[in-house]
Input
Amino acid sequence: MKHGSHLWGVTAQALAAALLWLYATAALWTRYLPTQQALPTPFAIVIDMPHAQLIRLLAGGMAVALTTLVGFQLLRTTGAFLALWVSLFAFLSLYLVSPNRSAEQIYSAHRSDFTTIATLARAGELTDTTSYGNNLSLRMRYLSTTGRVNWIQGSLFVPRRVVFPHNSAGFWYVPKGSPVGLDMFGTACARPVHLDQHWWACGISG
Output
């Protein structure tokens, strides 16, 4: 009975480690999906929310710890050291090469929510033109690092990163023209990526 309980415990830890590794490396393997909309919505949201790269790195650190623990319990000392070094190597590799998902991938995965924001903008339901901005619904706040969208010179800005004074980034809904030169909380939009009819991204690198 005790052996069975121990085995179930190790199995649960191994499963948790596998899920953590899956999430920690998500920015890499999701690049090869035929369409980003193939991702389950909850999983896509936690991959694409602002600061997700930092969260993925934390998940990788937890995966290292759990993998080492499982290795120790299954293989004792030698296996534990092997699991530790392999996990550390994987984690360092992840830290060095793990990118954020590209603007095109994020837009593709959440096109329906971006479309909803555009519809609200056209319907006049996002009326706050002050620097505070308009609160998004709870379901869509993951798209913005502030949970809000801002009207800036007639275009709607969805901030993904706000770092003063020169490192902000986000998505733009532009009714006419492009967002080149528009202010992103201290950062001028340059070299925007055209995503769809009125949607652009600026400063978001994959």
Q: What stands out?
A: Residues 2-97 form one domain.
